[in-house]
């Protein structure tokens, strides 16, 4: 008597367990900040009351001041941060992605606690804090958008700092010669494109390492603009470095909205262009054929080449476009924020913009939010220094860079850039 055995059917594809990769970076980052809050807001708590002033002249109506007791607020903040940390741990243990809103709420709660603790007994002008933060963020936004476009098409744009400097120098000189900030703005666009031409030529045509080319370009532009400043602009400041700037434009009705009105709607043309640039780049990158081709070249250039896309030409022109956008960021320094050009006035903002690209996971909206975060951290040192905060001045100076390191190394989590970024492509 023979018996036949039937093999058990193989599990369907949908029934197979899915391997997931867990990243503990965000929960660890949350935990570190929670411990810092426990140390400062709890153990080293300060007595007194911090007043947050929300009113601004010209608002439709004046919002009342918000007084917060430093000790009580610190306790509440510690509890909320601890709960958020526990929630993040539970989500990661369940192999789920930590929602973006949790990170945003965590950051806001920590900042409120830090401001309340550091300014105990003083008043913080919230509109002024936000206006300054936006001003410092605008060049980072332009640089981050340029970085997103360039890396999405497959070229790592380390040269954002050089594009900033070239745009700032050119816009200052041309605006001074012509007396027109608009002509200076066009000059900044051209300067950014010219710098990107060098990056594109060496990295795409001659297949030189993109990171090395970018670093060399930054050093060259820094030296060139510094030399021209000392030898040309400085001796002729009254004609070549006057400091022509765009006037502020108040958007009717909108600029009178409490708190956000003076922040977003009492700005110059360059800031309004940043709003437009974020919207246009986001839409074009994900909703147009141009954006589809750009992303295809950055992810799989060989496949894009197979369907008839000219990889080298696509990369060259999009790197040039990225340089033009970054040049606008350089123009902000001279046509809006400062006026006259000074040596190395960008102070490493291009590298922070590059960090915003990584922190924003190569997405225009996320990169813009990251740029706003870094700008807020930069302006925070000015506010805390003005109110004689107990935080050491050395820490205040390094605050933007500390936030950058924590954001990129500690809170990004699992992040993958465009697959072909930094890799030269040769047609086989």
TrEMBL record:
Keyword entries, A-Z: Cell membrane, Membrane, Transmembrane, Transmembrane helix
Matches recorded under InterPro entries: ABC_transp_permease
Organism of this sequence: Curtobacterium caseinilyticum
Subcellular locations according to the entry: Cell membrane
Membrane-spanning residues: 26-48, 68-88, 100-120, 126-148, 155-175, 181-204, 211-230, 269-286, 316-333, 345-362, 369-387, 393-413
Keyword Transmembrane attributed: yes
Membrane association type: Multi-pass membrane protein
Protein name per UniProt: ABC transporter permease
